[in-house]
Amino acid sequence: MKRIIAPLVLATALSLTAAGCSLEQTDTADGTVKVVIGYQSKTINTVTAGTLLKAKGYLEQRLQKVTDKTGTKYSVEWQDYDTGAPITAQMVAQKIDIGSMGDYPLLINGSRTQSVEAAQTQLVSITGYNPKGALNMVVVPPDSTATSIDDLKGQKVSASVGSAGHGTLVQALSRAGIDPKTGVEVLNQQPQVGASALESGQVKALSQFVAWPGLLVFENKAKLLYDGAELNVPTFHGVVARKSYSSAHPEVLDAFLQAQLDATTFIQQQPLEAAKLVADGSGLPAEVVYLYNGPGGTSFDTTLKPSLITAFKGDVAYLKSIGDFADLDIDKFVNDEPLRKAYSEVGQGNYDTDLANTANPTAVPGTTNPALAGDIWFDGADKTVPEADPTSLLRAVKAAQADGKKVKAAYVPDAELGTRWFADKAIWVRDGDTFLPFTTTAAAQRYHQAHPTGTTVSYEQAVSEVRQ
What we know:
The chain is of the alpha+beta class. The protein has 19 helices and 17 strands. Strand 11 (about 375-380) and strand 12 form a beta hairpin.
């Protein structure tokens, strides 16, 4: 089967910039330095460099401190996009100075910008990551009979080619022995277009990055088929900055990274409040935002960890699979010096200590085992209630229902992969008096194969049958 891929959005950017022709305009007529930030309001793992950062005003506050010292004024322009591709296009055209996007788009960014001196970029920080790859998922319609990635062979699948979600699809199909180029028909669509295509039946599955899988499942428009954590390969989002702009205005990049550290600290310490702010700024339901921004979800950590860079190098082959991209030297593309400088100036921690720490910075409070802990968000509450394990969470939900309390959302970690997921959307297995949640049918089936005593039950059954 021929795979259909529409041209990449960012490819057209090359026509905007000729060799030796600079399109950059950094200063206004009155001498004010302009900085243009490209971000993705609905891409939850970039919020510390985008939606949350903008909402809290941290960058403007940091730049004001520079103004107070030097007298130089700054103007910040925020540009919101659905994917990383148009951000890269604008960086090639020297119209965006700092941008954030997922790992696969970052590869394309580095490859596309390196041939234009004024557009060359560097990866300067991480926004959020998942050590197993759970940031990207494949969903199918609620009534789909598909139970594993193998069932997509010969089918139409929606994905944004060049995105992190597409990268996960390529890896998942390859591991299943399905040729990503001939085994499925990929429709290159923006996330919201793909969501509509899934709902209308135009495609049989959609592979996307956060928060789209969680959003569609939350809205009962899809169910999870494949959890990217099955790949057990780190996925992350990060920040790229144009080298020419950073050289001309190093204080701006410094202020940006300091502000990102401010936002990272805020989301680690106040995840629910952060989720509400991101919901307001993105238009996403707060329950969906908190799925990823909550404790045990995305690891919000700015440091450029060796494990992430190693995985990044392993992704380089992906470039060749989707088009004619120049090789990218990852070691030259990654630069941690600006972030180290920001760390020392902000004084919020030690860079090397945080670099070595691979634990999720945000855990469910009051619990001892992060791998089992979940939490419940009751309607009208300004904080969530922690639960030590999934069975305890079911008991709490049962008791709340008996008292007439409404559960806004409940979150549990997948029993196999650890992915944070909606309790009422999980596949539940009862084994004795213990209840285990799984993100996918395939994961539950793997448990059944090793534990024949387990019985699959619905969420409603699990709440009803759990012993108080």
